[in-house]
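In response to a reviewer's request, we include the raw inputs and outputs for one of the modeled complexes. The four entities were modeled together in a single run.
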Amino acid sequence: MVTLAEVAQHAGVSASTVSYVLSGKRSISTITRQRVEQSIRELGYHPNAGARALASSRSNIIALMVPLRTDMYVPVMMEIAIAVATTARTHGYDVLLLTGEEGPDAVRRVTGSGLADAMILMDVELDDERLPLLRGTDQPSVLIGLPADTTGLTCVDLDFKATGALCVEHLAMLGHRDIAVIGEAPAVYERHTGFAERTLDGLRSRAQELGVRLLHRPCEGGYDAMAVTLARILDERPGTTGFVVQNESAVEPLLALLRQQGRAVPEDVSVVAVCPDQVAMQASVRLTSVAIPAQEMGRHAVERLVAKLDGRGADEVVLIAPELAVRASTGPAPSGTS
Amino acid sequence: MVTLAEVAQHAGVSASTVSYVLSGKRSISTITRQRVEQSIRELGYHPNAGARALASSRSNIIALMVPLRTDMYVPVMMEIAIAVATTARTHGYDVLLLTGEEGPDAVRRVTGSGLADAMILMDVELDDERLPLLRGTDQPSVLIGLPADTTGLTCVDLDFKATGALCVEHLAMLGHRDIAVIGEAPAVYERHTGFAERTLDGLRSRAQELGVRLLHRPCEGGYDAMAVTLARILDERPGTTGFVVQNESAVEPLLALLRQQGRAVPEDVSVVAVCPDQVAMQASVRLTSVAIPAQEMGRHAVERLVAKLDGRGADEVVLIAPELAVRASTGPAPSGTS
DNA sequence: ATAGGATGTCGAAGCGCTTCGACAGCTTTC
DNA sequence: GAAAGCTGTCGAAGCGCTTCGACATCCTAT
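The model returned the following structure tokens for the whole complex.
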């Protein structure tokens, strides 16, 4: 293993000079810099991470805590994780992957050991037990998702309230007056992961403003659960012509069931989904949808975090504006309804 | 930040004694151990990761390199990643998440800097450019997936050849004589990711042994591509009654298309999938399938790696035996065929 | 009674790096 | 032409831990 000292000797300078070449924290003459860089290349030198962390008390590592649970739509998590890793690298950071399994202990461990300089938490619950720890430490952190109380925290998330509003608006504009919302599994609501509630909030308030009737039903996803849910909805509100779906595993079943019942999309009923673009594009009908901007969320989170690590940037809540892409699953409400 | 020295002082012992309590590398009297442990708890001490890494030249970190590309089925990757992280923790290791983006450079960087003690590589190509580097270093590594030449490497993967054989066997046993294989996207074959070829190999050789006719067609996935592929297959081999699908995004489209054409599953045609159990269970017909044992692969990989780090265990190829779960998508071939 | 072996603890030497203060050799300034 | 300021480089201290050899102590076997 090549060390700094060996590079210094090879280049005929002192160790500190090599260090300054590497960090750029003091000016070095061009000629010396080049000699040092040459030696580094020739010897294939890589600074030792441990020594560096010890001496500088910076590990250049960002911890990313992903949920262990897999009832959330997994590809989104993965996409965020990859965006985080990629963006972190462009800022000189590596990413440590923590699962939610350890819970708050992981926060303590990572903070206490100086393993990471900062943390990103995914899948934050409204009243997450890790939050007090984060507030109590001076280690920067960013949440992906929104807890109930955001004071003293930096959060990044899609603006789900605006998302809900946008979906209703789109359907209302097309003349739909009876809209059903197919939501996440009941467990998601019970767990108080805020996004589902915020979406509903946006849906409801905008629906009221626009004078649209709204019926919300959580759904486990899968064919059987969807069949039951749909039957109940149509029983209760036979005039339903618009659907908003916020549950990836209910999308395809819903389309199949509608087809099976002879209800054409978008001629008879319209469907708007809140889901990753990939799902919207690969469905049997190309779905009008609001995308979950996974990459953007990951990127934003890292950038906020790096800003904090550099002493720039304060606590703030970044809500990404939703964008509705109109595709083939929505159209004017059939005449004669409501 | 609490240090070892402070713990030592608090407990009235020397620093080295505390260190030995922590590592267990020398025997410590019960009374001393307890005093030290008490102090550790009271002070909330966490050993500094950097200092530890520097002094012991072990970082207790395993690097996991995941593919950047997302044309593979993402949930499987995620499940493996989580299994790796979870298993690693039970052995006292943390996991560093690297994306394939940096390619071989990441291997050099991590190896050179001592950031990680070992590596796990996912999505290995047959002739992966990272392999020479791995062979040339003394840092332990495990591949998830099988390259062309495995000498000097440790690999973990599903036995895809046996998987292919198993699928054919099952269909043949049920009396199917004309089987179509719907494979991954052409790009996957072109990239020479071995698993697709190995499955095909198993399918073909067993089909020949059993006197079954086999037709293989790659497929991009999605409805449109599947429609084209299916039409071609039925045109070329109208008597096809069995399907083997190795492409998650083709499964549901295939079922929908068959239904649409009035071919009942499993009465008229049988379908076997090679996919994660979750996909098989959530499909519109519960699919007979061979599961991709993501968790098991992640776990095995870490365990092999830890064995190597402990000086136990040598290079070897671990092929996980496939298991076929019979569900509702396969049945006896309709009489009068072939 | 005493040599020899366990057993438990300590001191000190690094691990490879960053960073601070010092300083030699320049250039600028009046 | 001397004071003052820059620039570029160096030496040394120290980050918090592991680990090796040394050394008491106590036990066991002669």
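As requested, we also summarize the result in words. Residues 1, 3-5, 15-16, 19-20, 23, 25-26, 47-48, 50-57 of chain A lie near DNA strand C (CB under 10 Å from a C1'). Chain A touches chain B through 55 residues (CB under 8 Å).
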